[in-house]
């Protein structure tokens, strides 16, 4: 993918230095004033996204050696601290006994955390709104499963086997055309969207980048392995029913079997994954490493909080009759909006 | 609770009873109708519905959680509101 357009002093500096030879340009630490909310800080979330993407597919213009460049890692750590402070402020979780982790996850995920985006898209959403929704989701879904896979080498025994079992299914069980990140391309194509990896980073706001960045934050740091497991569990446990609604919404708007495949697939797949994630992954991890119990619930709560924040953003923009994207977007010709 | 049976290929079939949830099937299993017609299984582990409300039966679609939620005794309204004689209910219009 190409480097995105900067959104402030930090991302501007990053986009500039990353084009050069690694290590030859010192990167200053973050001296900037933290914005009121890191989750909505465009410059911070884009800068984090830039740093994290070097660990996934990288950028066309950037030397791969930047990935482990110490000054860059130092800058990233500063951004992560601000993000973490905001998450800690937004998400309060009560202490939980290791044996109670699956129950706590069940309680957390059965509580409403925000407005119902699935209901809106199922019944009332326009084709243009559905397209925007898919565009926002493409930031994560085109790398779906990848951030959680970082957890595999950090676990052992039953929690590890559980995570592998879920991830193997996410990756299509050995069939590339069944990988969830690939299936999503059909939905994008049906809606007239470009299915290129990272194609729409410039179009989405900070909160959308935050929903992806938070998994990279948990995934790339071993100390956050509990939160990573909890994050995955929360996603899986709040997936089947919303995806059933998304699929129904897209069918209502004229989507065919290929267009709705992604959503239909998640209805069935995540009914399996949620059981494995809550009990075999998080439950056994909490018993094996009791100190991680609170982190597991924290990670789950972060997933739900950011998902709700994104849903709030989308519905509020649409309610005002506006686009939820950062700028007016030129759809390919012939597509309704 | 888990039941095990040796599958045809030597890979033990495991049936896991999820609390308030589906049956998880792993191993060399085959799912078929009563007249012997095989139902396509596209993943190694499947969740079979046991609440009877799934829209994608025989597989689970998570609807049991809605059933459970609506089945909780109401504190404000009268007893039994919103439940059918079997004690469970999913509002097909509102919830689905």
From TrEMBL, chain A:
Top-level division of the source organism's lineage: Bacteria
InterPro entries: Haem_Oase-like_multi-hlx (IPR016084)
Entry-linked Pfam families: Haem_oxygenas_2
Name the record gives this protein: Iron-containing redox enzyme family protein
From TrEMBL, chain B:
Secretion signal, residue range per the UniProt entry: none
SMART domains membership: ZnF_CDGSH (SM00704)
Domain Iron-binding zinc finger CDGSH type: 32-70
Record keywords: 2Fe-2S, Iron, Iron-sulfur, Metal-binding
GO molecular function, one term: 2 iron, 2 sulfur cluster binding
GO CC field: cytoplasm
UniProt key word Metal-binding: yes
Region feature Disordered, mapped onto this chain: 67-96
Classification via Pfam families: zf-CDGSH (PF09360)
Matches recorded under InterPro entries: FeS-contain_CDGSH-typ (IPR018967), MitoNEET_CISD (IPR042216)
Annotated protein name in UniProt: Iron-binding zinc finger CDGSH type domain-containing protein
């Amino acid at each position: 993918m190409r480097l995105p357009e900067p959104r402030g002093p930090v991302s501007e500096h990053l986009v500039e230095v990353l084009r050069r030879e690694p290590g030859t340009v010192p990167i200053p630490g973050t001296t900037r004033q933290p914005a009121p909310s890191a989750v909505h800080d465009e410059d911070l979330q884009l800068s984090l996204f830039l740093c994290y993407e070097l660990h996934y597919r990288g950028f066309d213009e950037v030397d791969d050696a930047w990935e482990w460049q110490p000054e860059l890692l130092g800058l990233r750590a500063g951004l992560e601290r601000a993000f973490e402070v905001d998450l800690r402020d937004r998400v309060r979780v009560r202490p939980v006994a290791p044996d109670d982790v699956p129950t706590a996850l069940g309680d957390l995920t059965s509580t409403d955390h925000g407005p119902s985006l699935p209901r809106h898209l199922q019944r009332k959403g326009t084709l243009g709104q559905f397209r925007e929704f898919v565009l926002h989701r493409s930031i994560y879904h085109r790398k779906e499963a990848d951030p959680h896979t970082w957890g595999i080498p950090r676990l052992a025994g039953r929690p590890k086997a559980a995570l592998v079992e879920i991830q193997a299914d996410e990756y299509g069980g050995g069939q590339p055309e069944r990988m969830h990140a690939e299936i999503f391309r059909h939905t994008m194509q049906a809606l007239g969207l470009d299915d290129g990896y990272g194609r729409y980073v410039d179009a989405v706001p900070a909160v959308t980048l935050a929903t992806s960045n938070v998994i990279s934050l948990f995934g790339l740091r071993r100390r956050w392995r509990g939160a990573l497991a909890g994050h995955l569990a929360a996603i899986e446990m709040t997936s089947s029913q919303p995806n059933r609604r998304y699929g129904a919404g897209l069918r209502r708007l004229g989507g065919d079997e290929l267009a709705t495949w992604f959503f239909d697939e998640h209805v069935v797949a995540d009914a399996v994954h949620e059981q494995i994630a809550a009990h075999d992954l998080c439950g056994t991890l909490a018993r094996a490493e009791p100190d991680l119990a609170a982190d597991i619930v924290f990670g789950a709560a972060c997933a739900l909080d950011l998902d709700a924040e994104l849903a709030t953003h989308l519905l509020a923009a649409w309610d005002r009759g506006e686009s939820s994207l950062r700028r007016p977007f030129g759809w390919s010709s012939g597509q309704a909006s | 609770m888990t039941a095990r049976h040796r599958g045809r290929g030597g890979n033990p079939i495991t049936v896991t009873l999820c609390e308030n949830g589906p049956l998880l099937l792993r191993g060399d299993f085959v799912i078929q109708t009563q007249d012997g017609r095989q139902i396509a299984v596209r993943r190694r582990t499947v969740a079979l519905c046991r609440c009877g409300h799934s829209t994608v039966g025989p597989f689970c679609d998570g609807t049991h959680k809605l059933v459970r939620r609506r089945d909780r005794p109401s504190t404000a309204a009268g007893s039994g509101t919103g439940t059918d004689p079997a004690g469970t209910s999913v509002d097909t219009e509102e919830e689905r």
